[in-house]
Amino acid sequence: MLLLVQPTLYDLSNGATSKFASRNGVALSSSSSHASSASMLPTPRSEDEILESANVKAFTFNELRTATRNFRPDSVLGEGGFGSVFKGWIDEKTLAPTRPGTGMVIAVKRLNQEGYQGHKEWLAEVNYLGTLSDPYLVKLVGYCLEDEQRLLVYEFMPRGSLENHLFRRSSHFQPLSWNLRMKIALGAAKGLAFLHSDKAKVIYRDFKTSNILLDANFNAKLSDFGLAKDGPTGDKSHVSTRVMGTHGYAAPEYLATGHLTTKSDVYSFGVVLLEMLSGRRALDKNRPNGEHNLVEWARPYLRSKRRIFRILDPRLGGQYSLARAQKAAALALQCLSVESRQRPSMDEVVTALEQLQDTKEGGHHHLQKRPSSRSLDSNGVKVAMKGKPAPSPKPV
Predict the structure, then answer these.
(1) 355 with 323: CB under 8 angstroms?
(2) Which DSSP string corresponds to 232-263?
(3) What is the strand order of the sheet 220-222 is part of?
(4) Same domain, 165 and 281
(5) What are 347-394's pLDDT values in tens digits?
(6) Residue 4 bridge partners (DSSP)
(7) First-to-last C-alpha distance (Å) of the chain
(8) Mapping DSSP to helix (H, G, I), strand (E, B) and coil, where does residue 111 land?
(9) Where along the chain is ATP bound (predicted)?
(10) Are 202 and 230 in contact (CB under 8 A)?
(11) Predicted TM-score of the model (pTM)
């Protein structure tokens, strides 16, 4: 059994640690959006309206207690400040609890009884995942609101979080191949693109590796909508809010002003893409001086095609096309532009990542070195170039 414990979220406006740890690997747990500033838009719908419009099942507490075998400790999939996530089983058609090993596997997140703030984030999950449906968002099966009990029921994501696959060192997590990393990046990008679309108009605000969950085939889905916000309406260019999120992922203009736009999410995507390329965490104080902040350390290498290999994850074993790596690095650099206007939209990111997919190799763990490819110049413009097999990455 895998125990998935996640990093803590922060109120980035003052550095105070949130009560709630970030969510999981199987739909673990919540983020921390403390009360918003007065300049935020009011909640558009009441609690009753949200629960009535949610296209999911309202479970009783007894049903979920039965489905998880009374929340047995050996069924814990993950835990954090929000609470614990338990493995359970329900009938695929009736959604009634079933015997362990039969029916559909679910992940049941049980909220710690922390009062209004925890309830607010529980409600935010129901609000967004109860009404939005997309192949690249984790599916909310149902919820439970009974007395003081607050629970959420998700589809089970057997591969857990991208964070564990990138950074955990154990026999459970083998190094991800280049192809799988690009496949996961594309799926996560499609999830963000859907949220930013006219159909949803949502700013995710907490894009990071621990919130990207993987199914059995390494298809990526976004989870944890505790910090998500409705996008700006009318002629407004941004949403003003208290700065919340996880250190290392937030866009510089959001940290400085509290102005939230879809380009804030694009910056966070750039950080995650860089983590996927390098195998390094966004912030890691265990690294040597000058390498604690991944974006600051990597930016000079991202600007130089000849030095790209110095940031690539040694666990890739050199099994990638240098031309494709250069193209992915150029995309990450664009997403990490200090000026938000210079960042691409998520639709543009999806288009760029689609060109990096290796359809022949699919999701297998070994990538043939490609004889040629296409890349981007420093301005993100497509240029033809002669690809060469990447040299084995050297320790930096």
Answers:
(1) no
(2) P-TT---EE---EE-TTTS-HHHHHH-EE-HH
(3) 160-161, 212-214, 220-222
(4) yes
(5) 999 999 999 998 664 444 344 443 333 444 443 434 434 444 444 444
(6) 78
(7) 35
(8) strand
(9) 109
(10) yes
(11) 0.79
Mean pLDDT of the chain: 81
Lowest mean pLDDT among 30-39, 103-112, 150-159, 346-355: 30-39
Question: What count of other Cβ atoms lies within 10 Å of the Cβ of residue 318?
Answer: 16
Mean pLDDT, range 180-190, rounded to an integer: 98
**Domain stops at, among 104, 123, 155:** 155
Rounded-to-integer distance, Cα 279 and Cα 176, Å: 10
**Which residues belong to the annotated binding site for ATP?**
109
Q: Read off the pLDDT of each residue in 278-284 and give the average, rounded to a whole number.
A: 96
Task: Answer whether 309's CB lies under 8 Å from 343's CB.
Answer: no
Query: Which of 330, 214, 203, 313 has the alpha carbon at shortest distance from 268?
Result: 203
- What three-state secondary structure class fits 38? coil
The distance from CA 94 to its chain's CA centroid, rounded to whole angstroms, is 30
Active-site option among 48, 147, 206, 230: 206
Are the beta carbons of 203 and 195 closer than 8 angstroms?
yes
DSSP 154-179: EE--TTEEHHHHHH--BTTBPPPPHH
Q: Verify that 380 and 234 share a domain, yes or no.
A: yes
Check if the beta carbon of residue 1 is closer than 8 Å to that of residue 240.
Answer: no
Cβ–Cβ < 8 Å for 44, 127: no
Residue with tokens 């990071």: 208
Q: Are 239 and 230 in contact (CB under 8 A)?
A: yes
Instruction: Output the pLDDT for position 81.
Output: 60
Annotated binding site: 109
> Residue 385 has which token pair?
């170039």
Per the CB < 8 A criterion, the answer to whether 85 and 26 are in contact is yes
pLDDT at 80: 66
- Structural domain harbouring 68: 4-155
Active site residue 48: no
pLDDT in tens, 70-98: 999 999 998 766 788 999 999 999 999 99
Mean pLDDT score, 241-264: 89
- 220 and 348 share a domain? yes
CATH number of the domain encompassing residue 31: 3.30.200.20
- Asked whether residue 393 is domain-assigned, the answer is no
